[in-house]
Amino acid sequence: MDLMSLAILVGAGLIAISVLTSLISFRVGAPLLLVFLGVGLLAGEDGIGGIDFDNAGLAYFVGSIALAIILFDSGFETRWQTVKAAAWPSLTLATVGVVLTTGLVGGVAHFAFGMPPLESLLIGAIVSSTDAAAVFFLLRVGGINIRERVRSVLEIESGSNDPMAIFLTITLVELIVGGVSADGMSWDLARSFVLQMGVGVLGGLAGGWLIVQAVNRIDLEQGLYPIIVVSLALCLFGGVSMLGGSGFLAVYVAGMFAGNSRLNGARSLRRFQSGLTWLCQITMFLMLGLLATPSEFLDIAPQAIALALFLTLVGRPLAIWLCLMPFGFTRSETAFIAWVGLRGAVSILLAILPLIAGFPDGQIFFNTAFIIVLVSLLVQGWTIKPMARRLGLIVPPRIGPVDRVELELPGGASHELVAYRTVAGSPVTLGERIPRWARPSLIVRNGQSMRLHKAGRVETGDLVLIFTSPDRLPLLDRLFASPTELKVKDREFYGDFTLAPDAAIGKLAETYGFAPPPQDAGLTVCDVLKREFKGRVETGDRLAYGPLELIVRAAADDKIDEIGLALEPSRSGRPGLFRRSGRA
């Protein structure tokens, strides 16, 4: 009993410490997952905690469950619009990119460690995928507002490349243990790939449909819906794995299917899964930190650090460049996607497999992967935002923060009840009228509830409750947003003046004294931009046109809402390491 109580005390204490030390991450800009890993290392046998934990099998079991939940939530939070914007480049990176990275890193590992080819490729496969938890945290929580297409590629790639890395790692371990000849290896790899990915995708679609039906058709207590969703996701993970498919791919696909379907209580499901995912990330990083023995790192540190630097500076950039060549990304975008190649818990988790399989040099695989992850989090994790700013990919905010609370309505209603806290200087307090379709249902002022006709004009500090459809929330956000001023560099991003999308290109050319191409006569500014970008436009796209530069200020679903005009393209040109016409 005392031992059990001590285990509970230590485990819960480490989780609490990890949560509290997250404040350090936000204050000094340290990658949060590095903080979690550091707590595990400090609590381990070489740290001040002195906890001796060496159960690789248990760590892999718990880590696999945690990773399955994280991938399900990653898919659940991925919108169809994101998939539509970046499906093919992302999937190319998640498959071909992982294979290329495996081969490049494996080749260097062969010379660095003097291992046979298969063992060298195994090291490459272990560190070939980016970490979904690390990437999602930096992009969604870290306050980095980057170009939409680049964000979409990174999110989908990080969520979908784990199954490929897991497949390659497990297959290579089986080939090494089974002693399969090189002649039969290609056929075994192809057959295993088709089976795992095919069963994974089909199982994921079926599992996602089942989860949607269970949530929408079964009448349960509200608190039980998140439990049944996570339980079904883990059942799917186990069942597909038993059938020979990729359980990790299945839960990611199921999460994407369910998250983009109409679900009763979707908001409460997201809140529950967000907290559970954080718990899984903390648990996984803590356990992997406890499993490590830093005193053993010194023996292989030079080779592992060299391999990490090759992966960061050569291997991934080369693989990314080759994969993205057909998709029209600029050099700045390609460079940033290559830099956001954060390695994390997945690589360390996969490095446990050689230990479980009984490899004589199994500890080398684990220690190498651990060092590579540490280097990645230290070098890349700390420099993502400066790199995005240097490459000119950060989109400056057009509006200030919004104090908004979304309240869920029962029965899967198509409208939402949102509550805005008005702030001084927001458009609505300066006389901007609230549209008829968003008339407030209730206004709370100084603790008193009142109707609109009694409250009169909205005042600073009011709590305004509005029923509206979700697609109109961005419009309301602009009314209730805090005031913000465009800085000089922001004006360079958005342009000096605003143009209407339907402005005639001929009239614009006449105003600024240049002759447009004959084929553009009769076209609007919007028509020209859509033609040049082949119908796919997003905020920040720039086009040099005569002595001017046309800039997409606001766009959604390939529809241009606002266009900016820069009079001096050389001044408003792209900041960054690379300069090129077209996309910034």
Question: Can you give me a brief rundown of this structure?
Answer:
The chain has 584 residues and is α+β, with helices and mostly antiparallel strands. It has helices at residues 2-28, 32-43, 56-76, 80-113, 117-126, 132-141, 148-178, 182-217, 225-242, 247-259, 266-291, 301-324, 331-339, 345-350, 352-356, 362-379, 384-390, 452-455, 473-480, 488-494, 505-511, 525-532, 569-572; strands at residues 404-407, 416-421, 442-445, 448-450, 463-468, 497-499, 542-545, 548-556, 559-566. Residues 570-584 have low confidence and may be disordered.
Shape: globular
Nearest-integer average pLDDT? 81
What is CATH's topology name of the largest domain?
Na+/H+ antiporter like fold
Q: How many helices in DSSP terms?
A: 23
Strand order of the biggest β-sheet:
1-2-5-3-4
CATH-derived architecture of the largest domain: Up-down Bundle
Q: How many strands in all? A: 9
Separation of termini? 63 Å
